[in-house]
TrEMBL record:
Molecular function (Gene Ontology), one example: uroporphyrin-III C-methyltransferase activity
Family (UniProt): Belongs to the precorrin methyltransferase family.
Enzyme class, spelled out: transferase
UniProt keyword list: Methyltransferase, Porphyrin biosynthesis, S-adenosyl-L-methionine, Transferase
Enzyme Commission no: 2.1.1.107
Source species: Paracoccus broussonetiae subsp. drimophilus
Gene Ontology terms describing biological process: methylation
PANTHER family registered for this protein in UniProt: S-ADENOSYL-L-METHIONINE-DEPENDENT UROPORPHYRINOGEN III METHYLTRANSFERASE, CHLOROPLASTIC, SIROHEME SYNTHASE-RELATED
Highest taxon in the source lineage: Bacteria
Name by which UniProt lists this protein: uroporphyrinogen-III C-methyltransferase
Every Tetrapyrrole methylase domain range: 5-216
UniProt xrefs under PROSITE patterns: SUMT_1, SUMT_2
């Protein structure tokens, strides 16, 4: 008899931001397959006898192949185990959830999705910012800053991304934001548009950098990407003072 796979969203990495259901699934799991960004204190919620398997993917570093992750999920579930696939942020946002669900469906394995606090919401919270504003930011959009090769996606909707009345959150964009900013400004977004770099949100080495789109592009061009995961927010962000 097959077990079940629970796709558990770990939020930004602070165990106090886990949902009650997420904690329950971790406590009863036989196997936990976890991302790099979902490791650390969150993993301590798993039972002492749970098998922990690292399957994270990080840009520019050796990473588990998606096919290998899929095979592990199927293998352990077919053995009748309760499997937690622990993903950072919310598993449905740039988390390769679709590929893993497809692998389970192909083998008739049941699954559930346990939602969590998206990293974009956590970043805005620690910065003390609303993501929408009644008069100036009536739209919120999430976008990836990296395609499968790690480069800037060529098929971006630049008109939408350069909308000065939208708050935009860029995932996986540290390496490509200088080129992205050039496109945004070229498509009409003011260079002085407020921007926020939120790095290692929810961790002790958390860092927030408030600047402008042009200023952040210059900073990342000069310093290069951080070793820590980061989000970029830009648009009509509220004054943080």
């Amino acid at each position: 008899m097959n077990g079940i796979v629970s796709f558990v969203s770990s939020g930004p990495g602070d165990p106090e931001l886990l949902t009650l259901r997420a904690v329950k699934r971790l406590q009863t799991a036989d196997v936990v397959l976890f991302d790099d960004l979902a490791s650390g204190p969150v993993l301590d919620c798993a039972g002492p006898d749970a098998l922990r398997i690292a399957v994270g993917k990080r840009a520019g570093r050796p990473s588990a192949k998606q096919e290998h992750v899929n095979a592990l999920l199927v293998e352990h579930a077919q053995a009748g185990r309760q499997v937690v696939r622990l993903k950072s942020g919310d598993s449905g946002v740039f988390g390769r959830l679709e590929e893993e669900i497809a692998a389970l469906r192909a083998h008739g394995i049941p699954f559930e999705i346990v939602p969590g606090v998206p990293s974009a919401m956590a970043a805005a919270a620690v910065a003390g910012l609303p993501l929408t504003r009644r008069l100036t930011a009536r739209r919120l959009q999430f976008v990836t800053g990296a395609d499968v090769t790690g480069g800037l996606p060529a098929d971006q909707n630049w008109a939408a991304l350069a909308d000065p009345h939208a708050t935009t959150v860029v995932f996986m964009g540290q390496r490509t934001f200088p080129a992205m900013a050039e496109q945004l400004i070229g498509h009409g977004l003011p260079a002085a548009t407020p921007a926020l770099l939120a790095e290692a949100v929810g961790h002790p080495h958390q860092r927030l950098v408030r600047t402008t789109v042009a200023g952040l592009a210059a900073l990342l061009q000069a310093e290069g990407p951080s070793a820590h995961p980061a989000l970029i927010l830009y648009g009509p962000l509220a004054d943080s003072n």
